[in-house]
Amino acid sequence: MTIYFYIEREKPYGCFSNFSAHGFMLDELYWVTSEHYFQAQKFINTPHLEQVRLANTPKDAANMGRNRSLPLRADWEQIKDDVMRKAVLQKFKTHADIREILLATGNEVLVENSPIDYYWGCGKDGSGKNKLGQILMEVREILRNEGL
Predict the structure, then answer these.
(1) Which DSSP category does 108 fall into?
(2) Number of compact structural domains in the chain
(3) Residues of 21-53 as b/e, b for ≥16 C-beta within 10 angstroms?
(4) Structural domain containing residue 72
(5) CA-to-CA distance for 148 and 127, rounded, in angstroms?
(6) DSSP letter, residue 49
(7) Local confidence band at 65 (pLDDT 50, 70, 90 cut-offs)
(8) CATH of the domain at 135
């Protein structure tokens, strides 16, 4: 079976969304959502990192992160998957309730059912890379191996 998720309000798998309100400490700072962390890392060592971290909503953080008038770090394309993995892992290590939901998916395939995102999600026609789903499955395996 395949488990599809997308919007953070969808139960029970909405917690897999980067917009879900499951904050965590990472890099000695508190992040309200994994979206805030991910988008802010595009601007490491600039004042824009803190602006994104303090954004009111994950959507605001995403919009700021996608603003190409801001100076995107040169290595972003090479490191973005690792940044996402780090954020998602920390989110699930921090919150036992959603960790249990993730672990309870067993070996099911997880797919971000985003109709607009062909990199992190599956896209409208299912041809997307589903990188977020893949990272969630990797995190699930890491948590299992660590006995969490």
Answers:
(1) -
(2) 1
(3) ebbbebeeeebbbbbbbbbbbbbeeeebbeebb
(4) 2-145
(5) 33
(6) H
(7) very high
(8) 1.10.357.40
Q: Which amino acid is at 5?
A: F
Average pLDDT over residues 36-65: 97
| pLDDT tens digits, 79-97 | 999 999 999 999 999 999 9
Instruction: Tell me whether strands 2-5 and 109-112 are parallel, antiparallel or unpaired.
Output: parallel
Among residues 93, 84, 86, 92, the alpha carbon closest in space to that of 62 is found at 84
How many angstroms separate the CA atoms of 61 and 65, rounded?
A: 6
Residue 9 has pLDDT above 90, yes or no: no
- Round to whole Å and give the CA distance between 36 and 19: 8
- DSSP letters, 113-135, are --SS-SSSS--TTS-S--HHHHH
